[in-house]
UniProtKB/TrEMBL annotation, chains A, B:
The lineage of its organism: Bacteria, Bacillati, Actinomycetota, Actinomycetes, Micromonosporales. InterPro entries: Homeodomain-like_sf (IPR009057), HTH-type_TetR-like_transc_reg (IPR050109), HTH_TetR (IPR001647). The keyword Transcription applies. Residues 4-64 form the HTH tetR-type domain. Pfam families: TetR_N. It comes from the Bacteria. This is TetR family transcriptional regulator. Keywords: DNA-binding, Transcription, Transcription regulation. Residues 27-46 bind DNA. SUPFAM superfamilies: Homeodomain-like.
Length: 179, 179
C-alpha cells in the first residue's frame, strides 16, 4: 500500500495551484491554505517556493544523465539513437502533467537554466544527432528537440492515454531521425 | 536604395539590447543611450516598451492569417497541408533572429498570448492535422508545432544559411506529416 506522505500532498497541492495561478502568483500561504495547515508547516518541508519547484522538476531533470548513460552503453550509433529516443520519450510521457503545467513559467525556466543536470542535454543531443552533423541532421535535431520538449504540454495530446502517447511519439521521433 | 528609418534603427538597437539583457532588463533609457538620442526621442516613436516588442513581433504574428488563407484556397487536404507547411517554414526562417532572441522571454510570451492574430494558429493546426485527427495525427501535430516553433531558436541551426535551413525544415516537416 502506498501511503501518501505530507511532502507528496504538499507537492500535489502546489502543482495544482501553479496550474491555476502560475508559480509567481502562488504563495506559500496559498499552499498552506489549500492543505488546511499553517505556513510554518509548509516551511517545515520546504525553505522556499524555489525549493518546491525544484522538488517537482528535479526528478525529470535528474533522468537526463541516466538516459544518456544507458544510450552510451549501446553498441553502434543506430542503437544508441534508438535508446536515447526511447528514454526521452518515456521522460516526456512520465512528466506530461508537470510539463503542461510548468512549461513557459518564467520561474521554472530560470531554475531549469541553472540546473546542473542540464549539461546532460548536450550528451543527449549528440546521441540523437551525431558529433559532426550535416546541415540536414542539425535541422532534424532542432525539430525533434523542440517537438519532444513541447509535445507533453500540447493541448492536442491531452486526451490520449500514456501508452498511445508514447507509441505515437516514438513513431514521430523515428520518422524524423531515420537517415 | 533602402534608407534605414529612425524607427528601424530603434528596433534594431532594441533587439540587440533584448538579446543581451532580456526585455525586462532593457529600459527605454538604455535604448536611447545605445542610439545616442534622448529618451524623449524614443518616446516620440514608441509609447512604451510593450509597443517596441509588439513592433518586433507583429510582422511575424500578422503573417499567420495570410498563411492560413493561402492554404485554405488550395484544393484538397494534401495540397493545403503542403501549402501551410511551406508558409510556416518561411515564417520560421524569416524571423529566426527574432525567434532566437525573444523566445521564452516572459514579457514576449505575455504579449503573444494576448495577441489577436494568435487565433489563426488554430486554423493552421487544423490545416496541418485535419479536423478530426486520430491519436497518431494529434501527436504528430504536437511534435511539428513544437518543432517548428523552437527550431529557429535552436543553437544547432545558427550557422546554416536561410536557404539550407528552409529546405531541411520543409523536409523534416514532410517526414513527420506524411500519412
Amino acid at each position: 500500500m502506498h501511503v501518501v506522505s505530507a511532502r507528496e500532498r504538499l507537492l500535489t497541492a502546489a502543482l495544482d495551484l501553479f496550474a491555476e495561478h502560475g508559480v509567481s502568483g502562488t504563495s506559500l500561504q496559498m499552499i498552506a491554505d489549500r492543505l488546511g495547515v499553517t505556513k510554518a508547516a509548509v516551511y517545515h518541508q520546504f525553505q522556499s517556493k524555489d525549493d518546491i519547484v525544484l522538488a517537482v522538476i528535479d526528478p525529470a531533470l535528474n533522468r537526463l544523465g541516466p538516459i544518456a548513460d544507458e544510450a552510451e552503453a549501446q553498441r553502434g550509433n543506430a542503437a544508441r539513437r534508438e535508446q536515447v529516443l526511447a528514454g526521452v520519450v518515456d521522460l516526456v510521457v512520465g512528466f506530461r502533467k508537470v510539463s503542461a503545467t510548468l512549461s513557459f513559467d518564467p520561474v521554472v525556466m530560470r531554475l531549469v537554466r541553472a540546473h546542473p543536470a542540464l549539461r546532460n542535454l548536450q550528451r543527449i543531443r549528440r546521441l540523437l544527432g551525431g558529433t559532426a552533423p550535416d546541415p540536414g541532421s542539425r535541422v532534424r535535431m532542432a525539430v525533434i528537440a523542440g517537438g519532444l520538449m513541447m509535445a507533453g504540454a500540447d493541448p492536442a495530446v491531452t486526451g490520449l492515454d500514456d501508452e498511445d502517447f508514447r507509441d505515437h511519439l516514438l513513431a514521430a521521433g523515428r520518422r524524423i531521425l531515420k537517415g
